[in-house]
């Protein structure tokens, strides 16, 4: 008998259950792992539900108010009502996961939804036309942070973080910059508190100023997209203004966010040079300061989603007949996100920034806003 034949089961031989046991155990283990994952997903969803429901309710009221007072708009009402509720009845700890979900993933989803209302040709045209104003305001923000920071005594990492946050995309730019320069948490808190304060002010002030100045929707969208810090505030101000200002401001803002890539790369080289000067033996290369940074810190995932949604519109997968509904859905998601941000507001966070960083933020806010309008006048886009 051959060796192969000796391994062939013989009829009537007793069955050995070891192999079947191992197979059943493996299936059971996989089933148990899947069950645990589903339970964890359900637990997280349940934890977010209370806060998200509150944000949705406030967004619904804000949407109705926005229809009644269109010059203000639903998104602005969302953040104002949320902030008022937070002052009168501070949200309990159980609401925090849902409010955080509303203010971040829901906002990012709204931008992707609104991307489906624009073609790539529109995105390229608007982004290209905004470059002169965008680069000019970025230069003003960085130079202004250096000059005003020296004047006010706000130096070092806080000065850099506030300048980049003002010039590019608010808290996202601060987070990416902090990951490279390794700033102290207190400096990051000062910068984010300052940026957050003027984000809220921009949502309330910019649409009213735009109407007073008689800006058309495209001029306002370019102004908001280049002069307001955070994406959420740009979206809120643009859609509160009405007309094409909303989608126009979103495209300008997302194009502006791409400026974070060369800035972070340059910071990596600067950190390497600074380290080499201080500690020659411990100096990293410029690339190593950036290499460990996740790509999603530099290019946000929702920006990729926005481009993909625009591409689907460009090739006809998303028909133009859907655009009005998508705009309504996207605007409601924005209002929900801003309600979550308003509910999460803490006056203590604003006070913690201190007077001098706030003065620096105020100075940069005025400088960038004025330079954006001035550059638009010079380039004939006003």
The percent range for strand residues is under 5%
What's the number of extended β-strand segments? 0
The residue ranges in which pLDDT falls below 50 over 5 or more consecutive positions are 1-8
| Secondary-structure content class | mainly alpha
Give an overview in words:
The chain has one domain (48-258, 299-379). By secondary structure, the chain is mostly helical. Helix 7 runs parallel beside helix 12 (260-278). The chain is 80% helix and 0% strand. The protein contains 18 helices and no strands. The radius of gyration is 26 Å and the shape is globular.
List its traits:
mainly alpha; single chain; about 375 residues; disordered N terminus
Quick recap:
The protein has 382 residues and is mainly alpha-helical.
Architecture blueprint of SSEs:
Blueprint: H1 3-6, H2 18-68, H3 74-88, H4 96-115, H5 120-152, H6 156-167, H7 170-181, H8 185-213, H9 217-227, H10 231-241, H11 245-257, H12 260-278, H13 286-291, H14 295-298, H15 301-314, H16 323-344, H17 347-352, H18 355-379
């Amino acid at each position: 008998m051959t060796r192969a034949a000796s391994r062939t089961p013989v009829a009537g031989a007793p069955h050995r259950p070891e192999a079947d046991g191992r197979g059943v155990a493996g299936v059971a283990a996989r089933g148990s792992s899947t069950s645990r994952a589903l339970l964890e997903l359900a637990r997280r969803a349940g934890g977010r539900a209370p806060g998200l429901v509150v944000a949705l309710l406030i967004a619904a009221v804000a949407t109705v108010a926005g229809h009644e007072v269109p010059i203000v708009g639903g998104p602005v009402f969302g953040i104002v009502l949320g902030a008022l509720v937070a002052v009168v009845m501070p949200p309990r700890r159980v609401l925090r996961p849902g409010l955080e979900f509303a203010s971040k993933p829901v906002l990012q989803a709204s931008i992707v939804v609104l991307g489906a209302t624009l073609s790539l040709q529109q995105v390229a045209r608007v982004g290209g036309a905004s470059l002169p104003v965008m680069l000019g305001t970025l230069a003003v923000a960085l130079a202004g942070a250096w000059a005003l920071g020296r004047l006010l005594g706000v130096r070092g990492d806080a000065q850099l973080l506030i300048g980049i946050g003002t010039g590019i995309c608010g808290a996202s730019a601060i987070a990416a910059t902090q990951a490279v320069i390794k700033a102290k948490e207190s400096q990051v808190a000062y910068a984010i508190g300052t940026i957050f304060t003027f984000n809220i002010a921009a949502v309330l002030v910019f649409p009213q100023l735009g109407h007073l100045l008689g800006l058309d929707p495209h001029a306002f969208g370019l102004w908001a997209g280049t002069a307001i810090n955070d994406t959420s505030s740009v979206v809120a101000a643009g859609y509160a203004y009405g007309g094409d200002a909303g989608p126009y401001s979103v495209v300008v803002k997302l194009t502006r966010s791409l400026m974070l890539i060369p800035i972070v790369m340059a910071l990596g080289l600067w950190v390497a040079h600074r380290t080499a000067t201080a500690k020659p033996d411990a100096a990293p290369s410029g690339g190593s300061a950036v290499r460990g940074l996740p790509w999603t810190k530099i290019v946000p995932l929702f920006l990729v989603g926005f481009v993909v949604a625009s591409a689907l519109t460009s090739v006809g997968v998303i028909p133009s007949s859907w655009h009005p509904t998508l705009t309504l859905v996207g605007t409601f998601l924005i209002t929900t996100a801003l309600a979550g941000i308003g509910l999460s507001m803490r006056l203590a966070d604003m006070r913690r920034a201190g007077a001098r960083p706030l003065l620096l933020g105020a100075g940069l806010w005025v400088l960038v806003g004025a330079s954006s309008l001035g550059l638009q006048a010079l380039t004939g886009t006003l």
